[in-house]
Write a structure and sequence with these properties.
Layout (H helix, E strand, L loop, with lengths): L1 E3 L3 E13 L6 H16 L24 H7 E21 L2 E20 L4 H6 L2 E24 L2 E24 L20 E22 L3 E12 L8 E12 L12 E15 L11 E3 L5 E3 L2 E3 L2 E3 L10 E14 L4 E13 L2 E5 L8 E5 L2 E18 L2 E11 L1 E6 L6 E3 L10 E3 L7 E4 L2 E4 L18 E3 L14 E4 L5 E11 L2 E11 L2 E4 H7 L11 H5 L29 E3 L2 E12 L2 H4 L5 E14 L19 E2 L8 E9 L1
Parallel strand pairs: 30-34
Antiparallel strand pairs: 1-2, 2-3, 3-4, 4-5, 5-6, 6-7, 7-8, 8-9, 9-10, 10-15, 11-14, 12-13, 15-16, 16-19, 17-18, 19-20, 19-21, 20-28, 22-23, 23-24, 24-27, 25-26, 28-29, 29-32, 30-31, 32-33, 33-35
Length: 661
């Protein structure tokens, strides 16, 4: 709702939503879905689902639930209520000067119960396991600004000054118990559980942002443009003396085609040169990292005077010196339009330098912790961005338009405050420290062993001290000491693509409209956790594998250097290697949409417009990647990509009807 008079402008908007029977996005559900996918991949496909008595069949070679038991034996019931609202009021002191106040809120309430019944391994061993939790997340924003806009002669001036504050809060409570009298009530009656197993947990945390801002926009003769801004941002996540960061920026623009010396031509319609410089801050480190916090231990872990007690443990080392991570960016670009708008686009070069990076620095474990969050080092990002749009009327009633975008990214860590390297990163299928941060290389480069072949019969196996056999991977001995260990690791790749592109085409003929969109990523690496599990199965050698490489594995009668024997799980510590860090480049036919708009004469008097359409999403992927989809990234980090038990991406078809009234 909006209301406006000559001096007063007022508006309010609210939305609410409710979702039932959801997988609430938290770690437990991620592990549950990942576990189902992992079991489905590894389980013997020749086994029956159930035995003659109706029980789920288990394999004697793995301590993993039957995949169907994971899906049907974990009972999840959830609700999510979300409320969003904004309200603003603006008063014009003068026609060119106004005061504006805006307030907004976002409240997200969730509750969920999970029950593992006796058809699952853990549910059977513990007599049913129940978890119930509720969580509330709120986000409130209040801002006030003073706005000025005035044109006088060849000049146009706009200015803004203001203050904003934003508060985030999360409240969480959880209850767990096991050994239920029956599975019939699922997690809806904790009174049927063994009271001695009952565990309650809760926490409350939040953070606050406070910002002061100012901005000036100036235009002269509609061809010279200037914008300058200054922000002072404060975050409660940093130490008391370092909470505020100061971030200026400015940009210049020049419409060259408006100059008198620019030749009048039918080729160039618009030509704009622009450049900008600015600083921004990053405070995404989670809450309370600058202070010491404590967490309760499992109350069944310690016994004092014959009674179970709950411990209180510090969770981190305080760092009151934490401050904003700062990124300084320079951008130079050109915008253009050619041939009466039939071709338009932009070309940009950018460079970003990030200083005071917020990284977890490894520290001696004698401190009780393995790492400490600090500001250390710097890195550079640079590249080009190119966008092009074309429109062409080929013939009467037929048109064709295209959109092409292309961009590159070159990432390099430039210094680490005198430290030569930081080893970090892990995931459940591999050992820790699987990536490296070191000057001269991309951030979090994959760090592992280089495979140089397969040990063969007749090779001198005593040339290394490791326990190897014919058919095992042969790794490069970097330091030449005869032992393959952590000192023999090399950089194997990184998660920054050489370039990314998208190409869309729209074809129109009378009422028909066809849209086709491709996108591609080239020169990106990813850890294929599925391959790692294939080479070094933690659940034993009797697991399901990729068929083609396994059938061509090394055997005494097939002494290949292409595939190992798949028998040595002792090489798991070398699991991150040049065979499991793979090229994840791809080209996708992402979207195809075909629609038809009925002629007006057929719907006159009934509807304003009628459109029938069919859409296909994620239709075809062209890639050499061995796995579900090279675009999957269950790890969630764009600069540290790992494919491990990711939910397969769906091919989707939509049929629809749009009616205009």
């Amino acid at each position: 709702m909006n209301h406006r008079t000559d001096r007063f402008n007022f508006g309010i908007s609210t939305t609410s939503s409710y979702i039932k029977d959801i997988f609430v996005p938290n770690g437990f559900d991620v592990n549950l879905r990942g576990g189902a996918i992992n079991a489905a991949k590894l389980y013997d496909p020749t086994l029956a689902i159930r035995d003659e008595e109706g029980n789920f069949v288990l394999t004697e070679f793995m301590d993993i639930d039957n995949p169907l038991a994971i899906l049907t034996g974990n009972h999840i019931d959830g609700n999510r209520y979300r409320y969003l609202g904004t309200v603003f009021a603006e008063y014009f002191v003068l026609p060119s000067l106004s005061v504006k106040v805006r307030a907004g809120g976002d409240a997200n309430n969730e509750d969920k119960t999970v029950y593992k019944d006796r058809t699952t391994i853990i549910g059977n061993s513990l007599g049913g396991v129940a978890t119930a939790y509720s969580a509330t997340q709120t986000n409130y924003l209040v801002e006030g600004t003073l706005n000025f806009n005035k044109a006088f002669g060849d000049h146009n001036l706009g200015a803004l000054a203001g203050i904003t504050t934003q508060k985030f809060m999360t409240k969480f409570s959880e209850q767990q118990a096991n050994n239920f009298t029956t599975d019939a009530t699922l997690a809806n009656n904790f009174g049927l559980a063994d009271r001695s197993t009952l565990i309650n947990n809760s926490f409350k945390e939040g953070n606050t942002l406070l910002s002061y801002l100012g901005r000036v926009n100036y235009k002269f003769q509609d061809k010279y443009l200037l914008t300058a801004s200054y922000r002072i941002d404060g975050s409660s996540r940093f130490g008391e003396g370092n909470r505020f960061g100061f971030f200026p920026s400015f940009s210049l623009g020049w419409l060259i085609d408006q100059e008198s010396f620019f030749p009048s031509t039918d080729v160039v319609d618009m030509l704009k040169l622009r450049g900008s410089w600015g600083q921004t801050g990053n405070q995404e480190i989670g809450n309370n990292n600058s202070i010491v916090t404590f967490a309760s231990g499992n109350r069944t872990s310690y016994v004092l005077d014959d009674q179970f007690v709950t411990s209180l443990n510090p969770t981190r080392i305080a760092n009151p010196d934490l401050q904003w991570e700062t990124t300084e960016q320079i951008d130079i670009g050109v915008d253009f339009s050619l041939f009466t708008g039939r071709i338009s686009g932009s070309i940009d070069w950018y460079q970003k330098k990030t200083t005071d990076m917020l990284l977890n620095l490894p520290i001696p474990t004698s401190s009780g912790f393995s790492s400490k969050l600090v500001n250390i080092g710097s890195m550079n990002n640079s590249g080009f961005e190119f966008a092009l749009t074309s429109y062409n009327v080929v013939d009467r009633g037929f048109s064709w338009s295209s959109d092409l975008n292309f961009y590159t990214l070159n990432n390099e860590v430039t210094e680490l405050g005198g430290i030569s390297q930081i080893l970090t990163g892990s995931f459940s299928a591999a050992a820790g420290n699987i990536s490296i941060i070191t000057p001269g290389e991309p951030l979090r480069s994959f760090y592992g062993h280089e495979v140089v072949g397969i040990w063969q019969q007749g090779d001198d196996l005593s040339s290394v001290t490791n326990n190897v056999s014919p058919g095992d991977f042969k790794f490069r001995d970097v330091d030449g000491n005869g032992t393959i260990d952590g000192d023999d690791r090399v950089i194997l790749g990184n998660s920054f693509p050489d370039f990314t592109w998208g190409f869309g085409n729209t074809f129109k003929y009378k009422g028909l409209n066809l849209y086709v969109f491709f996108r591609g990523v080239e020169g990106v690496n990813m850890i294929n956790g599925n391959l790692l599990e294939q080479y070094f199965p933690r659940s034993g050698v009797r697991v399901n594998r990729f068929a083609e490489p396994f059938l061509n594995r090394w055997t005494p009668t097939n002494p290949t250097n292409a595939q190992p024997s798949y028998l040595n799980v002792d090489q798991l510590s070398q699991g991150v290697n040049s065979r499991t860090v793979v090229d994840a480049s791809y080209i996708k036919l992402q979207t195809v949409r075909l629609s038809y708009t009925l002629p007006t004469r057929l719907i006159q008097g009934t509807f304003r417009s009628v459109e029938v359409y069919v859409t296909g999403l994620n239709l075809i992927t062209f890639s050499d990647y061995e796995g579900y989809d090279p675009a999957l990234n269950p790890n969630g980090s764009a600069n540290f990509r790992i494919d491990w038990n990711g939910y397969p991406s769906a091919r989707t078809y939509l049929f629809g009807l749009n009616l205009g009234f």
